[in-house]
Amino acid sequence: MSAATGSNRVIERDLVVIGGGPAGLAAAIAAREAGGDVLLIERDRILGGILNQCIHDGFGLHRFGEALSGPEYAGRFISRLRELDVPVMQNTIVLGLSRDRRLLVSRLGELQEIRARAVILAMGCRERTRGALSIPGHRPSGVYTAGAAQNFVNMENIMPGSRICILGSGDIGLIMARRMTLEGAKVEAVFELLPWSSGLPRNIRQCLVDYGIPLFLSTTVVDIVGMGRLEGVRVAQVDEQRRPVEGTERFVPCDTLLLSVGLIPENELAREAGISLSPITGGALVDADCMTDVPGIFSCGNALHVHDLVDRVSEEAERAGRAAAAYVSGALPKADAPVAVRPGAGVRYVMPDHVSVPKVISGPEKITLAFRVTEPRRDGVVRLTTDDGVVLKEEKHPRLHPAEMVWASLDLSQFEEMKRSGKTLEVSAS
Amino acid sequence: MTNADLNYDVLIVGAGVVGCAIARELARHRKREGEAFRVGVLEKEPDVSFGTSSRNSAVLHSGINYAPGSLRGALNVKGNAMMDRLCADLKVPIKRIGKLTVALTEEDLPGLHKQRSQGEANGVPGMELMDNAKMRTIQPGIEGILGLWTPTSAIISSFGLTIALAENAQANGVDFHLNCEVVGVERGEGKRTFGVRGSDGRVYTSRLLINAAGLHCDEVSAMLGITDVKIWSCRGEYYVLDRRLDGTLKTLIYPVPGPNDPGLGIHLTPTVDGNILIGPSATYIPEEDREDYRATSAVMADLRREGLHLLPDLAASDFIRSFSGNRPKQTPPEKGGNADFTIEETSVPGFIHLLGIESPGLTSSPAIAGMVRDMVAKHIPLAERDDFAPERPGFIGTFAELPLEQRMDLIRTEPEYGEVICRCERITKREIRQAIENPLGARTMASIKYRARAQMGRCQGGFCMPRIVRMLRDEYGFDPKDFFIRGGAPMFSGHVREGGDGR
User: Fold this and answer.
1) pLDDT band at residue B501, thresholds of 50, 70 and 90?
2) Residue range of the domain that includes A170
3) Is the pTM of this model over 0.90?
4) Which of A37, A93, A176, B376 is the most exposed place for a label (fewest CB within 10 A)?
């Protein structure tokens, strides 16, 4: 960038938030409220991110105590952002991020460098595609990720197809089963590889059961048929090793296959900046302030780990925003050896990866832990224990499900104690 | 039915790399005497390069694989040597990364030495036998006891080359008729012309007819009564790996091929775009499905296994796509192996056919074009044009690959270079616009993909495809029914409920 000359001056900012979806909005607002100088960068024409195409309701039940649509939920944050006069660059993409927080940003007529004292990564996530699943068969048209189809229907008023099969029971797939039905399409079925649904129970009820759309568990698509447009899919039941069972194959005619088979945190920029990522979540390894292992770079929302409720995204992002503002003002103390947090039996991952003490700035004196269990359980128990077996907390859950993130908290003082005695924290479920 | 516009001196059937190379080569010439030299290309697909030419390893071979005295050996070496100039003129990505053909055991050695002596006889430049230590200076950690190094082996954009040849040929006066499948051929009065019926209902006439129809070339020849030739379609499946692995492979690494292998074996191939290909397999497919490009679970499992064997730290998310390409083979399944190219003027005077142009067809294409030009010149004396424009003005290649300073300058004059549409591959709105406005008038999503690289990254169009759709609708007046991935593959069906039928 030293070559930058003429009108391409270098901009300097205290804090840059990358992404204007729910995480970026909440982070920018919280940082601004904490007194920071904030710039929000959004690649789309409008703020709100994926919420803009989520025209169904159910957002904000926890935070606002009412069921809002996606745009309504985003609208509340956008209004607040405007009240606070947070500067926003829209239609702007961040092409590069260095370890020392130099950003290369591009927009119509401009390619420039921004130097920031702190950066919050809030780029959200992307959908897993057919390629990542290795589904055999032809490559006809009519195979879309559920989110792309949602974009076409809700944003562009274009119908992707009329006879639909859905692979994967992720929430977007369930929402789209209902949406396509409402638009007059015939949704034949939802097929899920796992023996349980990967979407929220309320979405199974409201989007499938209420519309008589069958959900076939332990079933997958083994062949995609159609040299031009999709003509149908061959599905088969799978055994416990998720291998197709011979003799269970059947052909389901359809002109459209929607894929709702998982979300992947967007972390191209994090990788470029040399931030350590978790092989399980695909997001950064962060402390309780959402700070990555590159000082001054924070991560939150679906870029950090995929959430099921936007309310929780906002909450997490606010923590990141407050912490980043504190980092900029020098109020965030340097942590020496942090307390590690590890998933134990029955738990897939825990957020954060570690807790830095002596002092955490971003919230009250409680540390919030978010985690997901590996399989569904009834009358489950969640335990927070130290690595030498001392139970710090035990909570009963009538129902634990991989689709639903579980939350727990511990007092900061308990982490201080663990640090003194050199212990790590383990979260397990049974 | 005929009119002057559809009268040609030469008609070429098929706009793959061979057909397009011939078209451009003929465009370099004029008739020695008389009026304008008129060349036309008929292509059944809505764009050039939609068949085997976009579905291969995109490797330029050195010429060690082919028997001395064969057409393939000679055309390969000659074509390879022509590529640097061609790619420079047309701004086609090419990287001379060389190739190591590796003997893993003593058993492979006779095969390796055979390759070397074939290479010597064919005039392959710069060959060198390397022991393991020497090989490791090129590719760290490589296994094998002896390797044959061929520095002229290269990687290239195969569809980029085909498109560039076509667009440049068109800029120099060649007519491309897309969506026009040849459905019949008749001899004209006195058997001096050909009347070619297209699926568009028109009849095209020409003095000479060149059959470069790839997987369907025997069908076209049969239209002129030549029924003693036959093409079998042999599918090769591939995986495309994420660019995360860019730089892992410093060179091309191939096993020593067995005598009856229908291809060169499953291997890893880096691409000019920074991906790695795993493949290709080789499976003969049924006669009626010559263009069946399916991926099969058995082969996909093989390729994954092979990939993991060669690159142990591959993650599931590194496999971003699979694709298939079909080889037009003259050897039947029970025989296997390869036959030499057939490039000849047939028993029907003025009818030239090109049969079995499988590997190394891409490498050989400019040399094949020269050979066909000479065949044409026997009927129509030709001279080189002095007004031929060999370059593609205004085409800058991939913007994101230019130096930063140059990008900043370009954005100042073309603001849309600042607007990124395809996030994964960093393709700008300006590049998408150029692709949409391609001179051939090809308007499918695949046409945009092959020209601009948008939709080729790890999200496979999840992000940019809706944006490209919006651009085509808002700025180019596309209706939902106008969107096609490629021929016969409409993107949208059905209508949203609001607003009546959506129209």
Assistant:
1) very low
2) 129-261
3) yes
4) A37
